[in-house]
Backbone:
């Protein structure tokens, strides 16, 4: 029986989401180990990878489970007991056998959370603190990313992909309870693309961003810190 899982996690102390041969300290590594303890040997498949320190509120995965695990709520609670508190399976449901968490995804939504002001020890792992944010200018510049572009100048070096062209359907920023939240919705993202785009919003002017989007000139940009980035939703 194939199951789809909606997962939230605190990525602070994990080496990213993807399973690694060198370390089991990843999100999928921890989940695979938990399912194996419950007699489920099949690998879990995620909609995509998140880098070290990046969080999620709506990651989607799929896994094939034996039919005797008909009580999926019991399975959810059992796995959560093993992997908690940094990982939480929010929902689990049976899906068609053809469902694929990665290849079936149509859109991915990420949020980047900023707080205007000085850092504090209670939020430093989950929010990026910045001084003197020009909110009106940020609203104007973030819209430049909407559309279909070759994002090869907004990608971490060493990435192995067939195409660097992506379509961003929505890119906007809003305030919420003292936080500044940047939202990006696209058909997919390259490695570190969002962190480089956020970095560009604060390091470059509008003309420079356009130049880089059009691959006319590559500016030196420091990626925004990983702690402010959240995978928030996968759309199928």
Residues:
């Amino acid at each position: 029986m194939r199951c789809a899982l909606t997962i939230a996690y605190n990525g602070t102390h994990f080496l990213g989401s993807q399973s690694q041969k060198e370390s089991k300290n990843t999100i999928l590594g921890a989940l695979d180990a938990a399912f194996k303890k419950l007699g489920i040997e099949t690998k879990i498949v995620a909609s995509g990878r998140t880098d070290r320190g990046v969080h999620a509120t709506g990651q989607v995965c799929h896994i094939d489970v034996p039919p005797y695990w008909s009580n999926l709520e019991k399975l959810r609670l059992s796995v959560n007991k093993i992997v908690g508190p940094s990982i939480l399976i929010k929902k689990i449901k049976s899906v068609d056998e053809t469902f694929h968490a990665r290849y079936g995804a149509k859109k991915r939504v990420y949020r980047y959370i900023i707080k205007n002001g000085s850092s504090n020890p209670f939020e430093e792992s989950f929010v990026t603190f910045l001084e003197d944010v020009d909110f009106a200018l940020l609203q104007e510049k973030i819209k430049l990313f909407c559309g279909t572009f070759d994002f090869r100048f907004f990608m971490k070096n060493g990435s192995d992909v067939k195409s660097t062209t992506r379509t961003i359907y929505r890119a906007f920023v809003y305030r919420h309870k003292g936080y500044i939240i940047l939202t990006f919705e696209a058909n997919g993202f390259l490695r570190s693309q969002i962190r480089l785009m956020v970095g560009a919003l604060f390091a470059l002017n509008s003309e420079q961003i356009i130049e880089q989007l059009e691959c006319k000139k590559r500016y030196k940009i420091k990626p925004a810190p990983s702690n402010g980035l959240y995978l928030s939703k996968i759309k199928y």
The mean pLDDT is 95. The chain has two domains: 2-94, 107-235. The domain at 107-235 is CATH 3.30.70.660 (Alpha-Beta Plaits).
